[in-house]
## 1
Amino acid sequence: MSAEERQPPFYLGIDLGGTNIKSGVVDDLGRAFEGISIETEAERGPEVGLRNLVEAGNRAVKASGLDWSRITAVGLGSPGTMDIQEGLLLNPPNLPGWVNFPIRLRLGEALSKPTILQNDANAAAYGEYWSGAGRGTNSLVMFTLGTGIGCGIIDHGKVIEGRHSHGAECGHIIIQMEGGRKCSCGRFGHLEAYASATALVKRAIEALAENPKSALAELHNHDELTSRTIHDAAEAGDPLASRLMSDTARYLAVGAVSLMHTIDPDIVLFGGGMIAAGPKLLDTIRGEIKKLAFPVPAEKTRIEYAQLGGDAGFIGAAGCARLKATAEGH
Amino acid sequence: MSAEERQPPFYLGIDLGGTNIKSGVVDDLGRAFEGISIETEAERGPEVGLRNLVEAGNRAVKASGLDWSRITAVGLGSPGTMDIQEGLLLNPPNLPGWVNFPIRLRLGEALSKPTILQNDANAAAYGEYWSGAGRGTNSLVMFTLGTGIGCGIIDHGKVIEGRHSHGAECGHIIIQMEGGRKCSCGRFGHLEAYASATALVKRAIEALAENPKSALAELHNHDELTSRTIHDAAEAGDPLASRLMSDTARYLAVGAVSLMHTIDPDIVLFGGGMIAAGPKLLDTIRGEIKKLAFPVPAEKTRIEYAQLGGDAGFIGAAGCARLKATAEGH
């Protein structure tokens, strides 16, 4: 699609990660121009990071073939902790040293555009809601499965940001209060401690002690144990790997059901690197949800994979910028 | 306050329970006239129940000293299961035989007023939000502790009803996925299976086997074991009763924290009969929440008891009727 076929106005989305910055221009219907990616260089601190955000934005606008003057507003998705309303990064674990950094103000000044800040997982959920797997729905819960578990919730077209910018931190709902696993956050029994890619590998290593003949032992010896190789071993018929994958599906179903009994959305999405495991994992999750949920949501709630991949973040950030701009009549 | 001092327009709220119907008129600021209560006679079926709803409404309007002509709209809170949007009761466990009953239409016809249906726990949460302990907040989660655990969630002034009228069924979030207690709904590990008044008594009876010298044994022998008598025994220093009460507080904190990491509201409220336990239970819940929640919500989220008691349901139902009427410009 050429720039002429797109629907103005246009918005720039930027997805700030600990490793890379992704950015792209998005049209009024949520259709993205080709995105770009550059390194964050997070360890060099927020001033260098800010320069890189500006560079990413410039490259994305250039890649779109549009002039900067046609960009109405900018949306930035960032990992937390943050104050969304104030546009501040507080002390994000993935951006060490970016403490109390007024990123919305600084980026907005640097780009001379109205700019909003959003949590990255919220932005990804909004991206899928606006123009991905959640298109046409009214409410959505999305889990992003990676080293951790991110979550975003949309209800009646609004992101549940929370009073203290902690809305949808559902990787940290408690699913096993007694004798629960330790989470990366230091607390116990959280969903993330069971169902993230990191947790899957950890569970595999623990289980190897009692299953030394598993194909996973060889992978572990070669330092090749990842959520991907565990999935591949399950596909190849390794019993331990199969059990670990089906446990993962069950844990994810437990989290999904608690959200279905809280938000009761149209659709629950799973995104992130782990969905490379393909349709079998999704079907297993669906089966477990049917066992655990109340009859009506069990029957009617759609359970799907996300569709936008790594672009969901910048598309959703652009979408949040559009929401704000529209509300303010730009 | 006399009728003259109230702020029109006026709304009638009706709270339909399995045993009693409560009703009262509420003014535009959420201030209730004195409410009335009559028996539901639920077992006599929905037609008798409907007559009783009409009778309750008539008595409440009469008690207000207003003429029916001054009532703008009617809100009905009811136990589930239901279809809120369609105004249907589906198959409520507490109203046996009221199956697929178009209660909103029938009640609206009988009273000749615009009428809305709301889940009873949602209505109670909205009541507290509008004119109780949540007044002045922007978002709220309320747990109603009784034989079960009801829940209602308000975000930005809207009730989270859910796509299938299952929003805020948070008595049925999973807090112990492995080896969890059986819930009244038949599933396992739900919050309600640990922290309701019924669950407290059940845990007490189980624990008596290993603590035969507890003061609770005598109560049990006289069939006087209730959440109230267990609380009283704890106050009197019985070690088992004290442990049971502090466990209850911890379970409630687990549920509250999962909601704080999902909705991140301004305030979490506890209501229902169990709050007769008083300030000590609330303080224990607060202490447990501080241990389990992320630092910012742990510090900033207010944790309080509800204030409206048994009137929250009809006040909130009237408030939901007002929301609808206002949106439609009545």
Note: The mean pLDDT of chain B is 96.
## 2
Amino acid sequence: MTDATAALKLIDDSLEGAIERLFSFVRIPSISADPAYSADCDKAAAWIAAEFQALGCKASVRPTPGKPMVVAHYTPPDSGRKLPHVLFYGHYDVQPADPLDLWKNPPFEPQRIKNKAGVELLVGRGTADDKGQLMTFVEAARALIATNGSLPFKATFLIEGEEESGSPSLVPFLKENREELSCDVAFVCDTNMWDAKTPAITTRLRGLVHEEVTVIGPSIDLHSGMYGGPATNPIRALSRLVSSLHDAKGKVTIPGFYEGVSELPAAVKKQWASLKFSEKKFLGAVGLKTAAGEKGRSVLEQIWARPTAELNGMWGGYTGAGTKTVIPSKAFAKFTFRLVGKQNPAKVLKAFQRFAREQMMGDAKIAFSGKGGGSPASEISESNPFIRLSAAALKAEFKREAVLMGSGGSIPIVRHFKDILGMDSVLVGFGLDDDAIHSPNEKYNLSSFHRGMRSWVRIMGALGQ
Amino acid sequence: MTDATAALKLIDDSLEGAIERLFSFVRIPSISADPAYSADCDKAAAWIAAEFQALGCKASVRPTPGKPMVVAHYTPPDSGRKLPHVLFYGHYDVQPADPLDLWKNPPFEPQRIKNKAGVELLVGRGTADDKGQLMTFVEAARALIATNGSLPFKATFLIEGEEESGSPSLVPFLKENREELSCDVAFVCDTNMWDAKTPAITTRLRGLVHEEVTVIGPSIDLHSGMYGGPATNPIRALSRLVSSLHDAKGKVTIPGFYEGVSELPAAVKKQWASLKFSEKKFLGAVGLKTAAGEKGRSVLEQIWARPTAELNGMWGGYTGAGTKTVIPSKAFAKFTFRLVGKQNPAKVLKAFQRFAREQMMGDAKIAFSGKGGGSPASEISESNPFIRLSAAALKAEFKREAVLMGSGGSIPIVRHFKDILGMDSVLVGFGLDDDAIHSPNEKYNLSSFHRGMRSWVRIMGALGQ
């Protein structure tokens, strides 16, 4: 019988030390999307591996063709009882920090500050996504071991380093280490609370597929005076493709795109309506007023249950100061498609490519990166016993029912855990909608970090019951 | 009576020296659009002023709120005859050199090379536009003075440094120095030949107006998972604007855009048709096949006599390596409009702004740079005596009739010389269509440089008859 009381007290008493450890982690600029930060990714992997070693785990940094994986195994002393074997997942890589000039503090020099409302924040790239989140379960394990001598279950920790860049090495790694990594359940800490006071477990995740295109017009950049008129302008051709992706009602126009998308069951629709989600507040927080997605659907439905086609970046021609009267040779764009239900990433990608080719005009040609990767959407049963156990623990900590919610983002690992390792995932996270996790000035509320650690102490304690 | 024979021989005999002087000039990276090269613009101004001083001119570098102007006056010994007073115009600034990685040689390290066909080329940024071109009349004057003792006319040289960035200081400068700069005629050397063997005088120039826009969606960059669907994406809004600028027949859709545009007179249409211009060759040289402009109009008409709306640059969101699932806060684009006939730049700009605002969707807002400047189109009478004199001199040099042609590019100075100084301009230049003047690997054929100098010796000689 594990007593969580002493561990909870230790979490409260040693908060400063936990913040200092998180800040050391955040100071490593482990940006996986940019090859320039490759050595920093290695450094972050070594750092978190050393933390697991300190907990008494057998920890290793495992090379992959991309960024290394960190795997750590914790085996409690033999009690004679059959103990559950639980996997904890997080990622040590972070998003690129640009545009740098919009950060109030340098992204990799984390700070503890108070905002205007007096709320304490931990600011810096990765304080929330995902270094802060994953450290909540690391610190909880540390406190339980310190106060109880050991954890009351067998644990495997899997920390990857490519989550922000499409996880190219993940599936091969899971397949190669299927036996070692298969557990009774996975806990994934990379999601949000319902609000700052209400915990949540995410049971519905959108999938994702991405593609980068190059539209080619003339073979060289041209003078817009000498060629303006007869020359095909690749920016215009690309804009035409982008603007033809949606109809006037906000629906994606790619033929076959909605294959596998089901209407939301009435019961789920009703539950979400009961959440009293303020669309005005959600949009207003980021300077918006009008829901831009499919007409006739709520914002929650648009985010949690509908697929999208989005532009993440687009560029071509002269982008420096002043004017340059050029017709560029090439224009580029990065697209992502959020997927739901049974949409097939490979099929969506192929349908997009066919559609994109058809939108080209004049001499414009389109080329695809060939790197389009993706994962389908996931749904998790709400009757899973680990979901029920976790919901009860969260309720004990927050004195409120945990909301069982959807998420518009993608956590492909959930899908892979099910498909490759045969285990369900319980998504418990303590992020908030205003954490700015892919934007400048990312932050993690100190209360998210603190109550996150306390919540894991309760969940881990309950695993030993 | 000026004898050009000795000067022509001197040009031939001292070609190496002329090339070396041009290369010294090209080595100064005088990019006016980029503030980082401001000191280099000053250096280029000083360099060309020193050249005029060496010719016996009274030369000065005159400050402006932007880049300095170079003005030089040449007064021949008093012969008792009434001599013509002629202005020569060129510009010492050059286009930005990016993308740098497409240059075979560094842009500001000029070289003399032979292409695969054995044609000798001078390569480097500015070898043609406009340093190479303007040095043709400087070298011609040098040769005439060396062989005849003086020029047979009064000359004023005006070399500006903002031609590639909209010439913001030009109009105030012309107005402030109206008396000093008003001559009988201006010779402008910044245009092309008809082909490598056939000289040309340009009598028709398109005007230009430009604008840079910022489209604003959310107040911060957003995670495309968390907001994908309901969030307004500024790239999509901007693409919609871009793709709505033209109809299916290639016509610009901005209401009122064609106000002041006349159909080409039948006689001019016939003359241009007789030029046996190869559309296939013109487009094929830059990797294109199909004329993308207004349907039913020839390529020459599209370039010389029709207005356009072009995208010179567009950017927004993540443009680095790999993927970033972001919905950006802002997207940007640079537009230029080529003008013909009596189109009014300010009216076109206003009509575009009104149209652009109407294309915004959802919460997207559009802001304009407020820096949109421009100049209307120009046409010059073909019966002007200086045009006739120049055409005869060119025929003597090239043993072919000079073509009286149009140009799709803008030389606003021509308009300002007429409006402010009351003088016509004769546009004689030796550039070729494949000079890549706003692209990587800009070049000037050695024959353009050599016969350009010889042509000016003949024109200058004829001015003394």
Note: The first helix of chain A runs from residue 4 to 13.
